[in-house]
Write a structure and sequence with these properties.
By secondary structure, the protein is mainly α. The chain has a single domain, classed as Helix Hairpins (Orthogonal Bundle), CATH 1.10.287.1700. 96% of the residues lie in helices and 0% in strands. It contains two helices and no strands. Helix 1 packs antiparallel against helix 2. The two termini are 36 Å apart.
Length: 139
């Protein structure tokens, strides 16, 4: 029975597909988390800007404010770069998942094909046995 021999391979392919989908979902979540972090940084910068405008600053405070704002802007740019990197990883994981899913489905199709062939062979054997039995009865 070829279908039974290939079933462990198909089961393993299904497990690989399940692992790939979990990794893909985790990559998607990492993108969402990175986007939330970026939004928080942008919100913090906006809030910080509005607080500074309402109060007068001395020369040293203004310098410190500008340094802090520059660091915050750098963090925002790093967060944007991080998002792009995570999106690339996510796309790679999606392609990997699609590849494993395709392989799993192909193996499932092969099993179904083998099972149909095996059923046809069994039906022919059974028909042959019935024909032989009925020919014996007629004698």
């Amino acid at each position: 029975m070829r279908s039974k021999r290939i079933q462990p391979i198909a089961k393993h392919a299904e497990q690989l597909q399940q692992q790939a989908v979990q990794i893909f979902v985790a990559a998607q979540q990492a993108v969402v988390d990175a986007q939330l972090q970026l939004e928080q940084l942008i919100g913090y910068r906006s809030e910080y800007n509005s607080n500074r405008v309402s109060s007068g600053l001395g020369a040293m405070q203004l310098k410190d404010y500008q340094l802090f704002l520059n660091k915050l802007n750098q963090s925002i740019e790093q967060a944007r770069t991080n998002i792009q990197n995570k999106k690339q990883v996510c796309e790679q994981q999606k392609l990997n998942w699609l590849k494993t899913r395709s392989r799993s489905k192909a193996l499932d199709a092969v099993i179904v094909k083998y099972q149909m062939q095996e059923a046809q062979i069994e039906a022919r054997i059974e028909q042959k046995e019935q024909d032989e039995f009925s020919s014996r009865i007629k004698r």
